[in-house]
Write a structure and sequence with these properties.
The chain is of the alpha/beta class. It contains ten helices and ten strands. Strand 4, helix 8 and strand 5 form a beta-alpha-beta unit. The structure holds S-adenosylmethionine.
Length: about 290
């Protein structure tokens, strides 16, 4: 199958890899080889009938993180159902939905409700449209052309004043999975405000993040965490000065202060991932649940 125009455009412009890591010629070549390898594997999957309708090709899956697409998506949505009380009649907004890792397992559950996902990578949204919306019309996806150094360097909008493509109080749950760690403080402020705006009273905002308290700050300073955040900025810690949005950890008290300012409160103590207690990788992020007053 030929690549669509939007795929070609975004494959050309999207790095998905920190330029801090690909500065050297060898690293750039390695990244190029990796991408070509994934394309070859996708072709092989098709030729051998190993491709599955509701699983995106490998070259699209690579930018959403490690782990098995189906298993990770299923475990996240199990958590939303069992722990956060997500019901089949609920309306879910998924900001930074990627290639539908959360949407796919929800298609068999949100039978009366609805799902809206938006993302800044056009071919991810194209794939979600053709694979998911075509079979489940209550699942909708929207591409938003926000500029982001890693994922969409040629975008024209900004996260700090972006308005979610949704009416106020239209959703029971907002998911921000793998997103906060790519947002700068003024962008987090706006995304939390927008989450609060679109949530119904009592609705929940579910996020993954690298959360830092005093004890974790100590470990970060000593380099005893799975991901390194070498530059402290008071409210947050960044991995790379050259490319701050590659990975950002936030002080929990800062996130709580931002949330409170926008009418959200910590619904429960965050569930800690493994990234801050050990240097072992792969490592998981912390889970944060905020509730709309
Ligand atoms: C680590 S991936 C996680 C994707 C998805 N939430 C999942 O769990 O599979 C981060 C996603 O956030 C998207 N993203 C980054 N900055 C964004 C922004 N400002 N607004 C919306 N999406 C953004 C990226 O394009 C990418 O798809």
């Amino acid at each position: 199958m030929g690549a669509s125009r939007s795929e070609l455009k975004s494959l050309r412009s999207t790095k998905y890899t920190s330029s801090a890591r690909t500065e050297g010629g060898i690293e750039r070549l390695r990244a190029l080889g990796y991408r070509s390898g994934l394309r070859a594997l996708d072709l092989a999957d098709r030729a051998l009938g190993r491709d599955r309708k509701m699983v995106p090709p490998r070259r699209y899956r690579r930018f959403i993180g490690n782990g098995d697409f189906t298993k990770v998506g299923t475990s996240i949505t199990q958590y939303m159902r069992a722990e956060l009380g997500l019901l089949p009649s609920h309306d879910v907004l998924d900001a930074g939905c990627g290639v539908g890792r959360i949407a796919v397992p929800l298609t068999s559950y949100l039978t009366e409700g609805s799902y809206l996902g938006f993302d800044i990578v056009p071919h991810a949204i194209d794939w979600c449209h053709s694979a998911i919306t075509s079979r489940h019309p209550n699942f909708r996806f929207s591409h938003v052309d926000i500029k982001q150094e890693i994922y969409n360097p040629e975008g024209t909008l900004t996260s700090a004043d972006f308005r979610f493509p949704a009416d106020g109080q239209a959703f029971d749950m907002v998911a921000l999975v793998g997103l906060i760690s790519h947002l700068l403080p003024d962008e987090v402020d706006n995304y939390v405000a927008e989450s609060a705006r679109v949530l119904r009273p009592g609705g929940k905002c579910f996020a993954t993040a690298y959360l830092v308290d005093d004890m974790v700050a100590e470990r970060v300073r000593e380099g005893r965490t799975a991901f390194t955040f070498t530059h402290s900025r008071g409210t947050h810690f960044i991995h790379s000065e050259q490319e701050p949005t590659y990975a950002i950890a936030y002080r929990l008290d800062h996130i709580q202060e931002v949330a409170a300012r926008h009418g959200l409160r910590l619904e429960r103590e965050p569930q800690l991932g493994t990234w801050s207690s050990s240097t072992a990788r792969p490592a998981s992020m912390d889970l944060l649940v905020l509730e709309r007053a």
